[in-house]
């Protein structure tokens, strides 16, 4: 099995063109295969021991740290968070009813739409982070519905600190990483700069600055994740009781999000899954509770198309009865289309400027002149509101201009080129039209 997994990973690495890839497959109490391919931005080979950011995969670790305190009787899941964190508040009085379970199930009512996410990301301490929430409100009644929001898990990390008495990184090391035999894992910074894909080319970039807490601060390796995945299937060293692990993996009625894990059915196989993306690193993990298999795929890159999930599904197929689907091509195809759109827009904009004199002389009808000026402005309107409509497409998740310069850069640049082409056409037409009407 290890040989077939290795051959599959090498093929996936070649077909996707990723700069660096690490992966691990576990079964029961053993690591079946762990490997790394490619290089990091410093030119070093990627191995199973290369530190990688795992972004939102961190949430399952944070939830586990909270549940160790639950198992010890120091936290109760259905007790309001303010009982442990009196400084946790917003302008909405319903915040006092948010329980620990609501945070971990992401049913608290906290939302990117109603909290100043920019202010939270500028925070440098957990205290500053909680203070940034004070002017916010809730999007719904606590416990009423699921809404993905990183704030839930950053508050959960502060909860761990308050009850445990140590800072979050130390608490994670003592409560989770150490007992599970994950010596290379930590919370915070550490890896080399990752990469973003720009029209098919990998460009090294420093990670976008921001608060590194319970929602996305874990740095780990494929080898360490192997030990973590083994624990998630009930084998090897354990930091949770069976009841704690059941709470971690079990979503509330009517939902599919548990506590840092989602229940997903892929090709007839029910998996516990969670993915993560910062802006220069991407990761995904999954466990099969029935077969006892675990999978994780890490890359030191980010793009509009996520290859890690496809690779994970291929690994899952290899350990079952299926045949892995072909991987690769999605990123290059998507970005090639965007490059073509940008080139076409630039060409049309140049043509619009060159032919603006002809337009000014011929467009004399009542409606043709306004339409000839309005339709080229449409791309500029789309570009100017890009963060807003992308946020809408992402179910209200906050999107900033700084974020749009990272892995969405091909889309951002294409929209900017299209907007500039339209604006140049309008400016040239207005200039030419003014000259025609003034008789010059």
Automatic annotation (TrEMBL):
Listed InterPro entries: AmpC-like, Beta-lactam-related, Beta-lactam/transpept-like
Record-linked Pfam families: Beta-lactamase
Entry keyword annotation includes Transit peptide: no
Keyword annotations of the record: Membrane, Transmembrane, Transmembrane helix
Beta-lactamase-related domain sequence ranges: 6-304
TM spans (from-to): 336-354, 374-394, 406-428
Full protein name: CubicO group peptidase (Beta-lactamase class C family)
């Amino acid at each position: 099995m290890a040989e077939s997994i290795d051959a599959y990973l090498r093929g996936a690495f070649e077909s996707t063109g990723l700069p660096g890839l690490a992966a691990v497959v576990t079964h029961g109490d053993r690591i079946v295969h762990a490997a790394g391919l490619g290089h990091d931005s410093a030119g070093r080979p990627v191995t199973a021991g290369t530190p990688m950011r795992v972004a939102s995969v961190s949430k399952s670790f944070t939830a586990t740290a909270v549940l160790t305190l639950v198992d010890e009787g120091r936290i109760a899941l259905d007790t309001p968070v303010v009982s442990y964190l009196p400084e946790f508040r917003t302008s909405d009085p319903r915040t006092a009813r948010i329980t620990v379970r609501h945070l971990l199930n992401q049913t608290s009512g906290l939302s990117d739409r109603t909290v100043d996410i920019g202010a939270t990301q500028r925070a440098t301490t957990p205290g500053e982070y909680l203070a940034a929430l004070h002017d916010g409100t809730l999007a719904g009644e606590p416990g009423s519905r699921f809404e993905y929001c990183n704030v839930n898990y950053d508050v959960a990390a502060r909860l761990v600190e308050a009850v445990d008495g140590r800072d979050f990184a130390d608490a994670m090391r003592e409560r989770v990483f150490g007992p599970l035999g994950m010596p290379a894992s930590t919370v915070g910074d550490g890896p080399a700069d990752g990469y973003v894909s720009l029209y098919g080319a990998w460009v090294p970039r420093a990670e976008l600055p921001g608060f590194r807490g319970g929602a996305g601060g874990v740095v780990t390796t494929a080898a360490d994740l192997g030990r973590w995945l083994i624990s998630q299937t009930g084998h090897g060293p354990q930091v949770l009781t069976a009841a704690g692990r059941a709470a971690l993996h079990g979503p509330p009625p009517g939902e599919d999000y548990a506590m840092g894990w989602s229940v997903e059915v892929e090709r007839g196989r029910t998996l516990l899954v969670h993915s993560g993306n910062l802006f220069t690193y991407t990761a995904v993990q999954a466990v099969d509770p029935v077969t006892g298999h675990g999978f994780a795929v890490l890359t030191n890159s980010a793009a509009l198309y996520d290859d890690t999930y496809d690779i994970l599904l291929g690994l899952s197929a290899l350990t079952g009865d299926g045949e892995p689907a072909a991987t690769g091509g999605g990123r290059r195809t998507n970005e090639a289309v965007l490059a073509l759109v940008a080139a076409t827009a630039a060409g049309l904009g140049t043509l619009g400027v060159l032919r603006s004199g002809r337009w000014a002389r011929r467009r004399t009808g009542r409606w043709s002149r306004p339409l000839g000026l309005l339709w080229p402005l449409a791309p500029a309107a789309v570009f100017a509101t890009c963060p807003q409509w992308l946020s809408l497409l992402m179910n209200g998740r906050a999107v900033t201009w700084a974020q749009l310069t990272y892995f969405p850069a091909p889309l951002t640049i294409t929209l900017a080129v299209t907007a500039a082409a339209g604006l140049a056409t309008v400016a040239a037409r207005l200039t030419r039209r003014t000259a025609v009407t003034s008789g010059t």
